[in-house]
Design brief:
This protein has eight helices and two strands. The chain is mainly alpha-helical and 237 residues long. The chain folds into three domains: 61 residues, no CATH class; 64 residues; 53 residues.
Length: 237
């Protein structure tokens, strides 16, 4: 056992006893007797107790089995930042089709070359040049160029009407084709005035033309369908 005053050694002593604790106490008592001063005794006693406690803790730590020693606490990785991106957009369901509309299936082809070639042949048969065609198109569709026909149904209606015209027809008086887009809009307006539900309009179409969609009707049939619908607007006799 050794006594210190700060970092200066004041002396040392040994003790012998049946237990380690008794031996340490005995060594402390001998050392205090050797120093024999109140100041040294008080300071050395505190230092002895402090150093003895440190030695005991270090000895116990070294003697502890490795399996009982706690590993140093690992540094936890920083948590990822919360994603501050905008919340996902809530999809808005598309509005239902009007309840009084009759199903229309898109059937427009991608290639119109066959119909355009047929139109050229009919124009040659009738004897019309570009000027005559422009006059006729202006009357029928409101513009003078065939290339401004954006609806396949209008192109087909134009071709059908040309096939019905005799040769040398006057472009200023010849019968113009039924515009399918106008017929469809007219049909929608009548159905709206009737306030029919979709199933009711479909049943009416099925009972009169045995089809489930206006798309399956020719222009003449669609005109006839509109006429039948208009009759439903008349008051009962």
């Amino acid at each position: 056992m050794e006594a210190f005053d700060g970092d200066r050694s004041l002396g040392s002593a040994l003790g012998e006893a049946p237990t380690a604790t008794d031996a340490e106490d005995q060594a402390i008592a001998r050392l205090l007797q050797r120093l024999d001063t109140p100041k040294a005794t008080a300071a050395s006693h505190k230092e002895l107790v402090r150093r003895n406690s440190q030695n005991q803790d270090q000895t116990a730590q070294n003697a502890r089995p490795a399996s009982d020693q706690k590993p140093p606490k690992a540094i936890e990785p920083s948590q990822p930042a919360v994603d501050q991106a905008s919340p996902p957009a809530v999809s808005t369901p598309e509005p239902d089709a009007p309840t009084n509309a009759v199903n229309e299936a898109p059937t427009d082809p991608d290639d119109w070359s066959e119909e355009l070639t047929a139109i050229d042949l009919e124009l040659q048969r009738i004897g019309w040049d570009r000027a005559n065609e422009s006059i006729y198109l202006e009357r029928a569709f409101g513009h003078s160029s065939r290339h401004r026909l954006t609806r396949f149904s209008d192109l087909v209606a134009y071709l059908k009407r040309l096939r019905d015209l005799p040769a040398s027809s006057d472009a200023r008086t010849a019968a113009i084709p039924l515009r399918r887009s106008d017929l469809v809009n007219q049909c929608d307006e009548i159905l709206k005035r009737l306030n029919w539900q979709q199933q009711q309009a479909r049943d009416f179409l099925q009972s009169n033309f045995q089809v489930g969609s206006r798309q399956q009707l020719s222009d003449e049939q669609l005109l006839g369908f509109n006429m039948l619908l208009e009759e439903q607007l008349l008051p009962p006799s």
